[in-house]
């Protein structure tokens, strides 16, 4: 008699546990298209009533001990939208609402009306500001100050100079210089850019910015002045600097140091094509612009040149100063760096997206809206930067889709359905047996 009643309880617990498992499947399937959603799994365990004799223990059915979340990587879908971010690997985005923090894998972010990067429900994305104090804080693209790093103070050029170019006679270069006054001089010029180009072995141009953010072009002419030796001189248009007669518009003006006593860089090379220790690889020039800006002091550095028997070329030009521009768009790199792309063609770093991880991510509590919160079971958050250590990288223009496998869920649904039906059938069968018993009375 007691074993039959125990079967009723086992059937009831089976209905309850399989019903809960079916609810988990339903939740998973309904979130098959939820960005960043992680599927859950119902974990069963058996029930045993206490007080039974050893060797005659009969179970009382099953129960759902835990609903675990599976943090496997979801598929990354390309969207082409810069503020759609996916994490390829470990980690969670960090969101804040006041002093409360939330964690999510859903990276479908947007900008609010104040310029903060926020989630779809308005929570602010945390990271490290480029001009901040190094603490986690909301990231605001409007915090970028376009009034910093406007003007150029340094230019560094690298490349190769052809060892087979003809040597220019010293008298020829002297005559060219005599017809090219130093910037700021009121002496009329006679040398043209065409004459400089004909005499030079090679030339290049680079852009610099003055204190008002206006751009100017400096032309560097490379003259081969000896075996294993090049002399580099720098020029700007006469009308761009003070003191030039109006008739000199379009003619070059030489750039020189503050005293006007030094106007070239002398690159001496060894027989193996490398710069020798005797080279004068840098020159700091003073440029008195005529547009009302402050005079520029710019260090021109050419210490990364070689001389081989191959065509002259410029390998790279590095400079500071971005001029004045407003943010046209933003881009986010795989290591979480956020860059503002300015309308003047320059870029500037705004900050870095931060990530968090936990010793037990399955211990995080789900609170809805694609959000998770810390619990004692999850442990304390570990903050870090994308693509460093154990943290995954950021994929801009992509979203992590739900990791729900619909085929797997439907297979499990069939299994749980059969379990539910079997438990129901067991109760029905025991009810019939009890009815038979009652007929004996």
List strands and helices in order, with pairings.
Elements: H1 2-30, E1 40-48, E2 59-69, E3 76-78, E4 85-88, E5 92-97, E6 100-104, E7 110-111, E8 117-118, E9 124-129, E10 137-138, E11 154-162, H2 170-178, H3 193-199, E12 202-209, E13 215-226, E14 229-237, E15 252-254, E16 264-268, E17 282-287, E18 296-308, E19 313-319, E20 327-332, E21 337-342, E22 347-353, E23 355-357, E24 365-368, E25 371-373, E26 382-384, E27 393-396, E28 398-400, H4 406-438
Parallel strand pairs: 11-18
Antiparallel strand pairs: 1-2, 3-28, 4-27, 5-6, 5-9, 5-23, 7-8, 9-10, 9-22, 11-19, 12-13, 13-14, 14-15, 14-16, 17-18, 20-21, 21-22, 23-26, 24-25
The CATH homologous superfamily name of the largest domain equals Flagellar hook protein FlgE
Total domains: 3
- Architecture of the largest domain, according to CATH? Sandwich
Question: What is the residue-averaged pLDDT?
Answer: 91
Count of DSSP E strands? 28
Morphology? rod-shaped
Continuous helix count: 4
Rg over CA atoms: 37 Å
Residue runs with pLDDT of under 50 for 5 or more positions: none
Structural class determined from secondary elements? alpha+beta
Distance between the termini: 15 Å
DSSP strand (E) fraction?
35-45%
- In helices, the fraction of residues equals 10-25%
CATH domain class name of the largest domain: Mainly Beta
